[in-house]
Model the fold of this input.
Amino acid sequence: MTGGNRGIGRAIAEAFVANGDKVAVTTRSGGAPDGALDVRCDVTDPAQVEAAFATIEEAHGPVEVLVANAGITADTLILRMSEEDWSSVIDTNLTGSFRLAKRAAKGMLRLRRGRIVFISSVVGLLGSAGQANYAASKAGLVGMARSLARELGSRSITANVVAPGFIETDMTGVLTDEQKAAIKAQVPLGRYGSAAEIADTVLWLTGPGAAYVTGAVIPVDGGLGMGH
Done:
């Protein structure tokens, strides 16, 4: 899985380790959880993606489950959004996920099985002022997953999307109490989610109980994005 050094990504990696799986985590700066193979990889560089897969396959064998979680933000209103603000977010969040899925699918097709999970966001379908780039990148994952579900399904490979809402992480920790209260007021369950709740959903999607689930968008957002 990618982006597993903190927040949601780390919780997902830890859940797989606790489940007894062989886990490899890619990050740009290191810091994979204990029990996981720590691999450096910038998903915006095709050569680094290829090298990361080679390292992982040598250590663990073919990749059976891909969780594409690496993501960045560069929030600003559209009139102030630079070309770099747009392209950097799309390249990491969307194109990076394409590179990972393409490389993982190669091995999964040989195995005739596999699970691909893209970590999107409630913002991808709900929209968010100041996040046109981020929302576009996260919505794009849905179209990609559904296309892969159709393309790879005959080989028992599933492709799904998990769309987290507001989750307690370092990224939300910087918000003021007023901002947090305003966000909670929009959520029917009236609270933030935990990274562990996202991890549990990913674990289910990649386990035996979800073998007939593909092309799905699973919201884990306390009801925030209902109808989207």
User: Anything to note?
Assistant: The chain has a mean pLDDT of 95. The helical segments are 7-18, 46-60, 83-111, 122-126, 132-152, 170-173, 177-186, 195-205. Residues 44 and 91 are 6 Å apart (CA to CA). The two ends are 27 Å apart (CA to CA).
